[in-house]
Amino acid sequence: MSETQTFELPRAVIPDLPVGEWACASGQRTRIADTGEGARSSFLALVCEHCGNISQNLAAARYHAVKLCDVSHPLAAPVVSESLPSAAGDFELEYQAFGFRGEAAEVLMSAAREWNRRGVESGDAKMKRKALRLKRKAIRFANCGRLGRSAICSLYPFEHKFYAPHDCGTDFCMKCAQGQRRALFGKYLRVILNAVAGGVPKGWTLARVTFTLRSDGSEITPERVKAFNSAVRFTVRKSVGSRNGFGFLFSDEVGFEKRGHLPDALRVAGGLNLHAHGLYFGPYVDWERTRDLWAAETEKRFGVPSTGFYITEVKGFRRDPERAVRWALNHLLKYLSKPPAVTAGRLAALILSFDGAKRVHALGRFYGRCPTKEKANCPCPTCRRMGLEKPGVLSFEGKFLPNGGSIPRLSLVGDLVAQGYLPLHGDGRTTDFGDCLAVDAAAP
């Protein structure tokens, strides 16, 4: 391998590097070696051959190379290829320093090791890909909010400096929950408003709907989640009597681990009941008939009938449809941001149970092409606050590729804050990014 060869690094992945030597774009080599005699082979350190500095992770090595050793480009690192066999050491990581998140990530990594073992024994490529997906998810979850993508203003690069926290995007992550909720709200609001803009036909309504699947206390599996969502779709279509003559949006929720209507000792399901909270726009449906359809469908799919069906009309819908839609959609999506667990094991089990399964589903008139935000240059919020007629444009620091892509520089949030970087809202990809500053900086 030549010293100038680089690899594309996925944004949300911090791969393990084998023992050896790798070169940055400037030719400065960084050696990857074990931390000491008797250390685990998976616990590696990045040693700078220019000054001998030892970094414990890739982000710290990049920061050291760029800021302290005057290396003009971040360290290039290889991708863990899905087509290559994974060694056992690839699934052995240290999580003691990550606290609660580390405990949950270790459970996810244990599941990844198990799927990798099955894939190696059976030769099944799907199992190996699932193991790799769980491994990456564990790494992202443990590092959620610890790293940030730094950006500088084109007019005042040394004074106006910002960073966007590098979130994991994992289901049931409380750091990412509110951001996902805002994104889904903006995604579906326009679709639903377009569906009701033509007027409300006679005999139609906008209603909040809830389906509940009773649990016997056993763990939820991805197969159970997918069967539950299929049962909800079948019941709604059967009750309405049409596949497209209505609009329905629903999201999956799981009960809380410790809090409930009954004392924990009397809770049979232990908070593992599956719920589907939905927003329905269509002709009036018969509650009793829909309840019976739901009971029959759950008995056919799960062996035990569930009669949990609830529907109520959204108040004020006919007087002010837009306001009613906004309120009902916000109420629906709040269930995605509720804390699901208090123990790391339960949280990891929920993440595993929804691995490969969607939590938000749209049917009928609500199943449409969602509007996309126009991509444009991000104005500097400090310049705008100063009242400049032509504010500066934010640009992310990192390595720019010949094909127009880029590898953003990831650094520890604590280091960025110490260097005077300010936090930003948004994900750094759309025009709403940089419109305002976050109130509090993310914790390192």
**Tally of structural domains:** 4
- Distance between termini? 35 Å
Backbone CA Rg: 25 Å
User: What is the strand content?
Assistant: 15-25%
CATH class assignment of the largest domain: Alpha Beta
Mean pLDDT: 75
What oligomeric state best describes the polypeptide chains here? single chain
Q: How would you sum up the major sheet?
A: 6 strands, mixed
Question: Remind me, CATH topology of the largest domain?
Answer: Alpha-Beta Plaits
Give the H and E element order: EEEEHHHEEHEHEEHEHHEEHEEEEHE
Low-confidence stretches: 1-45, 71-86, 427-444
Large-scale geometry = globular
List the total number of helices. Answer: 10
Helix amount, in percent? 25-40%
Task: Look at the helices and sheets and give the structural class.
Answer: alpha+beta
Secondary structure: number of strands: 17
How does this structure look, described?
By secondary structure, the chain is α+β, with helices and mostly antiparallel strands. It has four domains: 79 residues, no CATH class; 55 residues; 72 residues, no CATH class; 185 residues, Alpha-Beta Plaits (2-Layer Sandwich), CATH 3.30.70. The chain is built from ten helices and 17 strands. The strands form four sheets. Strands 5, 6, 12, 13, 16 and 17 form a six-stranded mixed β-sheet that branches. A hairpin with a 5-residue loop joins strand 1 and strand 2. The N terminus and C terminus are likely disordered.
Walk me through the topology.
Blueprint: E1 20-23, E2 29-34, E3 44-48, E4 54-55, H1 58-68, H2 99-122, H3 125-142, E5 147-153, E6 161-165, H4 174-196, E7 204-213, H5 222-240, E8 247-254, E9 274-283, H6 287-302, E10 308-313, H7 321-333, H8 344-353, E11 360-364, E12 378-379, H9 381-385, E13 393-396, E14 398-400, E15 406-408, E16 410-412, H10 413-418, E17 422-423
Parallel strand pairs: 6-17
Antiparallel strand pairs: 1-2, 2-3, 3-4, 5-6, 5-13, 5-16, 7-9, 7-10, 8-9, 8-11, 12-13, 14-15
Helix pairs in contact: 2-3, 2-8, 4-7, 5-6
